[in-house]
Amino acid sequence: SGRFAKPSTPTQKVTFADVAGQDQAKREVSELVEFLRDPERFQKVGAEVPHGVLLVGPPGTGKTLLAKALAGEADVPFFSTSGSEFIEVFVGVGAARVRKMFEAARRAAPAIIFIDELDSIGRTRGTGLGGGHDEREQTLNQILAELDGFGGREAVVVLAATNRPDVLDPALLRPGRFDRHVTLNLPDKNARRAILNIHASRLPLEDSSDLDTMAAGTTGFSGADLKNLLNEAAINAARRNASLITSDDLGEARDKVIMGTVRSLAIRP
Ligand code: ATP
């Protein structure tokens, strides 16, 4: 019952156009759109489409966004959970939660399941100091069992995200499980400009060419960092009681993101 009975329905549909850069990743994931839109076309001729796709990349590079965009493009329900939820929220009921989510997705098929932070639940089994990881291992085993339980042609695609593919239990990566890997990278200058463009579209910038300067001066920033930078700049402008966001606002915001103080500011009321 409860949480997984219904998929989350984002109020606004996410599409590939919302994901800036990441062209290779978008191309790879978009192959699944056709299948999800019309699984029967594939089933009819006995074509088996991969069920498990691992999205690999640093934090904030758009893994969750890309998974949602696939659901939006294919127009299918999106069931999502996070590995850390199993550690923090579903204590004692992890395996049952996994079973219910897969059950609900199968009923709603064609559908997408998204497991964020797979590494927090999917680390190599039997490596915990002094044991005590039975609960986590049961959850992981249930995920493996569900992946194995797919008939080759069931129209459920399972996407999982991680920034630590190196710590994953090798069992997760075997054929028929997460055997397809899609890599997301930190954005280059052009991609940073495109990301800034998307997130600044509704912001009152004094001079939109400031975004070129920002794109050039934010090497190493993720998409999430750039989004934070713009929001912090808007907060700066509001504090000044200004109606336009200036290059100074942007510069200060960039420094804050670099100092790592933005996140804490953002959650302060
Ligand atoms: P994490 O590993 O921290 O979960 P993630 O890779 O799943 O991160 P998202 O949660 O998808 O990253 O990104 C956070 C937010 O940053 C997104 O909701 C989006 O607003 C913005 N963002 C990240 N990458 C991009 C991108 N390529 N294009 C546009 N926006 C992006």
From TrEMBL:
Its main location: membrane. It comes from Roseovarius gaetbuli. ATP binds at residues 57-64. Homohexamer. Keywords: ATP-binding, Cell membrane, Hydrolase, Membrane, Metal-binding, Metalloprotease, Nucleotide-binding, Protease, Transmembrane, Transmembrane helix, Zinc. One of its GO terms (cellular component) is plasma membrane. GO terms for molecular function: ATP binding; ATP hydrolysis activity; ATP-dependent peptidase activity; metalloendopeptidase activity; zinc ion binding. Acts as a processive, ATP-dependent zinc metallopeptidase for both cytoplasmic and membrane proteins. Plays a role in the quality control of integral membrane proteins. This is ATP-dependent zinc metalloprotease FtsH. In the C-terminal section; belongs to the peptidase M41 family. Belongs to the AAA ATPase family. It comes from the Bacteria. Residues 49-188 form the AAA+ ATPase domain. The chain holds residues 144 to 412 of 621 of the full protein. GO terms for biological process: protein catabolic process; proteolysis. It is found in: Cell membrane; Membrane.
